[in-house]
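Hi P.,

Sorry for the delay on this. The queue was packed all week, but I finally got your sequence through. Input first:
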Amino acid sequence: MKNDNFVHRLEAICRSLCCNEFSDLYEPVDERRLRYQEALDQLRVLADPMTEPIADLLKICAKFLYAFYDNTLGRSFIVTEEGSVGLAPKTVRDGDHIAVFFGCPSPIVLRPNGDGEYLVVGECYVHGLMTGETFLGPLSSNWQRVGRYDEKTRLWWDAFVDGERNVRQVEDPRLGPLPEGWVEDKHSKQHIYCTYRNVREGYTTTFDPRMMPPALHARGVDLQEFTLV
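Then the structure:
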């Protein structure tokens, strides 16, 4: 059990130090970045430096160290009260809060000012909070989110891949059925994003109704409002 905990902790640290920006999380693979297993292997070497001479150590781990430098410059390594690890602005301090906001691609570090308001410290990376876990829970181990490049739009779009069944889809597999009164619209770009139509009110949106407050409340998600300064 202790060994398993060490492995999981090392994996979380590796993903945090590289902000989970690995080449094998892109389709097609982005060869400018480290592959995850490559980064993990190099971190293991660094975690036990006595196994290699210093000169060889720097050579073996050069790609990881470059990625480490790029991602940690101006940031601090953090551990939350719950034991999650990540990277935050270097101005972060004990007592700061981490919040996940609608529309923000990353969690945000907030600092309470004592008047019920919060100062925005900056964005952060927290392992276990980066793919909607706050609202939907963790992805099953066979699923992962990837960035998929679309030639027509020349943009990267989120997709979900089931590595066991070799299945790729746009919709998050955790979402479940649409709320009553909603249907998925067919359109020319549905291979990269979804649109939804409210059949009662007749409007269409790209915002998934399963992520709207009423649907999240129904899932038992404790939503809160913050006053930011």
